[in-house]
Design brief:
about 0% strand; mainly alpha; 4 helices
Length: about 110
């Protein structure tokens, strides 16, 4: 059992050094998974507007909205993941990536 705890702690310590990159991967994957749904919702809401306004709003949401989400939400996610201790970080990351995989499989 000590070997398992040592492996988890080692993986967590390694993950802690790459937490920003891991958070960036999680955010990018979530935006790829939920982006089409968000885009469809926006298209339904702005479908009755003029073509120029629809295009402008869509570009602003896709380029600026998703870009700002990546830039500003990634550090928050990394900071939130940093609150886990060395015995819970690796299992939480494995669970998060497993759940993202399940979501991707169902999409």
């Amino acid at each position: 059992m000590d070997l398992l705890f040592d492996l988890i702690a080692t993986l967590s310590r390694w993950s802690r050094g790459h937490l920003y990159d891991i958070a960036l991967a999680i955010m990018a994957t979530l935006l790829v998974l939920f982006g089409p749904g968000i885009n469809a919702w926006v298209q339904r809401r702005i479908g009755s507007l003029n073509f120029i306004f629809r295009t402008l709003i869509f570009v602003l949401i896709c380029a600026v909205g998703y870009g700002l989400a990546m830039v500003f939400l990634t550090p928050w996610l990394a900071q939130g993941l940093g609150h886990f201790n060395n015995y819970t970080l690796a299992p939480v990351l494995l669970l998060v990536f497993f759940l993202i995989g399940v979501l991707a499989d169902r999409s």
